[in-house]
Structure prediction request, 521 residues.
Amino acid sequence: MFNRRHFLAGATLAGLAAPAIVRAQGPFRDFPFSLGVAAGDPASDGFVIWTRLAPDPMERHGGMPLANVPVEWEVASDTGFRDVVAKGTELARPELAHSVHVEVAGLQPDRPYYYRFTAGGERSLRGRARTLPASGARVDALKFGVAGCQHFESGFYGAYRHLAREDLAFVYHYGDFIYEYQQDYLYDSGLPIRPVRRYAQRALVDLTDFRGAYTQTLLDIDQQAVRSTHAHLSSFDDHEIRNDWVSDVDNWKMGLSGNDPDAAPPEIFMLKKQAAMQAWYEHMPVRKALLPRGGMVAAHREFRYGDLVAMQLLDTRQYRSDQPCGDGFKPACTEVFAKDAQVLGKAQEDWLARNLAKGGATWNAIAQQVTMMSLDRRRKPDEPAKILNLDSWAGYEAPRERILSRFAGLDNCVVLTGDEHQNFCGDLVLKDKVVGAEFVATSISSGGDGSDRRAGTDDWLKLNPELKFANDQRGYVVCDVNRDAWQTHFMVVDKVTTPVNNLSKRATGVVERGVAGIKMA
Prediction:
């Protein structure tokens, strides 16, 4: 008999929610695992497994009673769950939207496992995750994905179905999982077009609003496919709260209008941030150590893939100084060179320095959100002065130089970035010396279909000789790493304005071991 569970398990079109079915038996009015399952923060002996009970997902509290509900979980070494290696029961609490975060331990390193949940006689989709190799173990290869920036209204998530089919150890999601606003129209080649689908809320203000945005996103079956297939290293950027926010500053200053008159004062913005960070935690497969405390999340953490890759996952929002020069894309002012400016904050910057100094890995990966290269953003020959993206590291020259000085001499630092809604890559340069490489991954849907190149790309590349490649299509990147080279494949889809699309490899950037810089294959 066809039911909602069969639909969620087998649907192939993105963005379609199954029709509601009134259930004749059981404690839930409908299938409680409507938002799927996920795994994240893998270690050599386990990972986090996540789900959320929501039989009426877009209703207040997800259609759940305001009571604790026991959820059983199982982890097995096989898809049929004949060899169950770990199991238990976790309470889904109404204070956390009946989400469940189970920290599974005691597993074997470097192998796949399968997991599922049961509640009220209902069983979830099956998920898959892979443990990391043992710390310090010799590892010869790693393949993982990088993705993010998935504006629900700009396009469908078909790229995620392609990413789910990749053979990967994990996916680094750099942020912008939701967007905090609804739009009446978008732009394509300068002309207005209607959004392909709509957020339920016009703007996100309180916890209920933020929960609703995550719920809509997670009802997308392609989103569920990738989260149930690959363990995720989850981060956040700005749109989880407010465009261009930093620290306690509600900071939407884009354009020529100056400060947004609707921006909240810090004490009010922190209340909004607290709600947003709670909703982020409730829907991400992260450890309980990342439960918000006073609106703050301890988001920076390290993952080591044997002796091959040491990955530092950074937070470039919570501890950053306010953007200089009124933010936006504009020429530098004196604030860009302020010695006391911060991007990571002193504690996180010191933590990064200690981890880089430890060594023990062939490659140092720095996974973060905003572009580290200081690029001239002019795309027209008649623009007179160098233009910077002041929401990137280019707006904070002193901390940028401190980080690049840490890279100098290591010859194995690769920075992974998002935010820009385009693909590009280039060398990280400090005082005319190449000290690292940066790969910027495009968006899953933000920006719409796009094209191979934005207008003025040739001029942009000429102004920035450190840039090796630029592209304006949607998709994700796959990093294929061995002991001799790091290859980053830019995987693009032909469109996001339809649920189904075609995938192709647009380009590959290569970093050779011991050579600090990128060449295109």
Notes: Confidence is low (pLDDT under 50) at residues 1-25, 253-258. DSSP finds eight helices and 26 strands in the chain.
